[in-house]
Amino acid sequence: MSYFFAHHLSYTLPDGRLLLQSLDISLQAGLQGLTGANGSGKSVLLELLAGQRPLQQGSIQRQGSLGYFAQLQQQGWRQAGPVADLLQLREPLEALQRIMAGSCAEADFERLAEQWTLAEELAAQLQALGLSGDVWQPCAELSGGQLSRLLLWQLFRQQPDWLLLDEPGNHLDASGRAWLQQQLLAYPGAVLLISHDPALLEVVPVLYQLQQGKLQRYGGGFSLYQSQQRAEQQAVAQALAQRKKEQRQLEHSIAQREQKAQRRARSGKLQRASGSQSKLLLDARQNSAEQSGAARKRQADAERRRLQQQLGQLMERQHNEQALSFQLPTQAQQAGEQLRLQDLVLCFGLAEPVSLVVSFGDKLWLQGNNGTGKSVLLRTISGSLAPRAGLLRCSSPCHYLDQYFSLLDLEQTALDNLQQLAPCLGATEARTALVAIGLAAQQWTQPVRSLSGGERMKLALLALTRPQPQMPLLLLDEPDNHLDLQAKAYLARQLANWPGSFVLVSHDEGFARDCGCNQQLALTQQPG
């Protein structure tokens, strides 16, 4: 019988921040979700459960096979060999090729292991996944969505008892997300899924929220989770208001008692000075008053501590995620043509020749399924790829943000990255900007590798959008990937208010609309 338990997991980051606090989790059969703000520790928790990160404190017990999908693993595979290598099928496929060419070597027959229809079946499966069907196609030519779908298909095909998926919906187009949802619902084993996608989380019957190092379990899908959270937060807000009212009343009561005690003390001094009362009587009264005052002070201090403790507990339960406050810079308005493409043919990808004009202030939504060449087009506009044919003319500098934050140096700190990418910022301005995107001071001096995917995306966006002598054309390749819902909504508002131009790739129509896109271009696959 399979089981998966984690007890008292705690994890402290190199900067000293306690990320996970004595967590207990028992994974069950079926589909379970894990959500939380960027930087809350979701990926770290999954890495601990998957054995990809050493334990610091606590224990994990598991019986059964394990499959793990990491959030940013596509970038590594883009630099690898062909699809056959990714699927770990090079040896049997090459053995089949040699046998078909006349080889009678026993080793080739052993490697093939009677998989005589492997090549045909694999080609058909790849085509069903939206790929070309060529097992020798370089992974570097696949889009992020195609790579994700291929890696996920391989995991689903292996059917481990426990499947840990870190934001598998990133990069997938609408059909890919529908396919993923179908696979998750039909999966015979147990799945723990990290996601910020409300549609994907809606079909998850059990949701865990990770906040301030602790897990809270919810049931019933994303809509019910949100309504439960709203009710919880309303109750917490009411309890906070009541405790603060009690705190004010306590301080008012203490102040009144102190005033009465001071009046009695003054009266006693007057009586002592006038000699109208016995000194023994006055001494006894003073002693009694001092003892009563000390007792009242102990009682008030205890009440203060009780209320302060309750306030602290309630504030921990409040959603006090740091709101983003960074602003995209406002620069002088410009006019005229900024980008022109005429019959542009990409070096690879399945997009038809592209023609478009972007003028200053235009906000273009670039649509298309996985593999149609959206990322290749952005890389071509940025100058990192050369077109095969056609005209490309750009009158502004291009700032390109790819899906993997390649502009960031993972080994350097967040502060060093920002100052190198935006040299116009002084040290104080850079630190203020990092605070504005929600990075704590301890994170500024840690390697960018230690940041979550959402935190890296915020840092990259911050660096790209700092004031420049000439307003750039932003090339944004799925910037909504990795972002939690709060950050995604904030980014959309900022882009909508930005006076400059951008070309935005996103599979989320609502996000593109909220970003203020006033143009759109759909890339389509060529038939055949």
TrEMBL record:
Biased composition (Polar residues): 273-291
Pfam families per the UniProt record, alphabetical: ABC_tran (PF00005)
Keyword Nucleotide-binding: yes
Entries under InterPro entries matching the protein: AAA+_ATPase, ABC_transporter-like_ATP-bd, ABC_transporter-like_CS, ABCF, P-loop_NTPase
SUPFAM superfamilies: P-loop containing nucleoside triphosphate hydrolases (SSF52540)
Keyword Nucleotide-binding: yes
A GO term, aspect molecular function: ATP hydrolysis activity
PANTHER family assigned: ATP-BINDING TRANSPORT PROTEIN-RELATED (PTHR19211), BLL7188 PROTEIN (PTHR19211:SF6)
Protein name: ATPase components of ABC transporters with duplicated ATPase domains
Organism annotation: Alkalimonas amylolytica
